């Protein structure tokens, strides 16, 4: 079978290799990978990024949809032909997130999914409903679950702020609208603003034209600020987010899209009056809930572009360009 590895931790270092098809052991599934979705994290693990992979030369990517082709001994809950998606944290099956449950992170300390076949424990996948295509299913394990987690509990009469139009933010917009909340989104261009409005954003602010966008958010919320901020920008955006959140609101710390930004001021942090919550994707029940909600509410994951398996490097380059809107996917096989 064909797999990709980062022979060097650079985009140019992504190369195809031949490898034997693995065999499933007791309790495991042999999967034919159908589609893989990329995340900012896959770039952050490269040279110059903020994450340091533990396994050098790992097969990259954390998110995939696949078909069961063979089951190991004692597997009585999956049959060949069923479609599944993988858990982002294959060992976090529920309960509080303890360190040992975060071990085994694809593309970080174990091989990921950019391969034609993969063997995983049967607990590390959930079924993909018929309403969702392979490509759509592949987008769910990380970005969708994180967004689902970040907007959980919001509802009518509340406003959610999303930042940019990457994978997590677009899912957060879709879920928040489905839950009846109002959404204010920021983005970098008029064309992306139009697409965010088409997905239901009630107001969109261009953060390049309006660097102090928190003032506009306040004006759009009668001076109160928003109940929920899905904070994906990190140092670049946290200062504005703290000014944009309501006293009774919550800033969900999801990620970072760069290191530049003013240092966080303790008094500003405390003065915001809001709660801060860190996320780390989610556990298995959260993935199951997110998948079911996406299918039953008729939410179509927004896929910017699907690349062929032999174009995988171009897919990474497209993600790195920041031109995408929503998710970038690689199709594996026909
Ligand atoms: N903690 C967790 O559980 C978790 C889970 C998933 C992801 N994350 C993290 O969340 C972050 C986003 O991930 P992703 O995969 O959604 O990224 P992504 O798809 O690569 O999104 C990047 C987009 O962010 C926008 N952006 C860039 N700089 C910005 C800025 N200064 N202000 C506002 N928007 C900006 C751009 O959209 P526009 O052109 O529209 O501005 C860009 O296209 C990453 O740090 C990732 O590691 C964390």
Please provide a written account of the structure.
By secondary structure, the protein is α/β, with parallel strands linked by helices. The protein has 2 domains: 2-139 and 301-331, Quinone Oxidoreductase, Chain A, domain 1, CATH 3.90.180.10; 145-278, NAD(P)-binding Rossmann-like Domain (Rossmann fold), CATH 3.40.50.720. 27% of the residues lie in helices and 25% in strands. Helix 4 (140-151) packs across helix 5. Bound molecules: NADP nicotinamide-adenine-dinucleotide phosphate (NAP).
Helix-strand topology string: EEEHEEHEEHHEHEHEHEHEHEHEHE
What is the CATH architecture assignment of the largest domain? Alpha-Beta Complex
Any low-confidence stretches, pLDDT <50, length ≥5? none
Strand content: 25-35%
* Content-based structural category: alpha/beta
How many domain modules? 2
Broad shape: globular
Biggest β-sheet: count, sense, barrel? 7 strands, mixed
Number of helices: 11
The overall strand count is: 15
């Amino acid at each position: 079978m064909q797999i990709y590895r980062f022979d060097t931790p650079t985009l140019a270092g992504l190369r195809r290799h031949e490898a034997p098809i693995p065999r499933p052991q007791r309790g495991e599934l042999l999967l034919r990978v159908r589609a893989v979705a990329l995340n900012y994290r896959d770039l952050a693990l490269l040279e110059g990024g903020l994450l340091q992979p533990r396994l050098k030369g790992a097969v990259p990517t954390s998110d995939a949809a696949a078909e069961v082709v063979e089951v190991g001994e004692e597997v009585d809950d999956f049959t060949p032909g069923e479609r599944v998606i993988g858990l982002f944290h294959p060992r976090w099956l529920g309960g509080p997130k303890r360190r040992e449950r975060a071990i085994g992170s694809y593309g970080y300390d174990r091989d990921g999914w950019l391969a034609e076949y993969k063997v995983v424990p049967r607990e590390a996948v959930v079924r993909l409903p018929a309403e969702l295509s392979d490509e759509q299913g592949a987008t769910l394990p990380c970005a969708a679950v994180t967004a689902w987690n970040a907007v959980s509990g919001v509802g009518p009469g509340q406003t959610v702020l999303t930042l940019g139009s990457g994978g997590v933010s677009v899912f957060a917009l879709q879920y928040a609208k489905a839950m009846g909340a109002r959404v204010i989104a920021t983005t970098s261009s008029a064309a992306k603003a139009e697409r965010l409005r088409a997905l239901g954003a009630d107001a969109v602010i261009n953060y390049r034209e309006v660097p102090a966008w928190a003032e506009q958010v306040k004006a759009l919320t009668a001076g109160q600020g928003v109940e929920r901020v899905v904070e994906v920008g990190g140092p670049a955006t946290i200062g504005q987010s703290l000014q944009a959140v309501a006293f009774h609101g919550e800033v969900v710390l999801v990620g970072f899209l760069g290191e530049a930004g003013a240092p966080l001021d303790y008094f500003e942090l405390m003065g915001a009056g809001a709660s801060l919550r860190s996320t780390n994707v989610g556990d298995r029940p959260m993935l199951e809930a997110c998948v079911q909600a996406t299918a039953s509410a008729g939410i179509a994951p927004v896929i910017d572009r699907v690349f062929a398996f032999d174009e995988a490097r171009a897919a990474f380059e497209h993600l790195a360009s920041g031109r995408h809107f929503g998710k970038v996917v690689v199709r594996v096989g026909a």
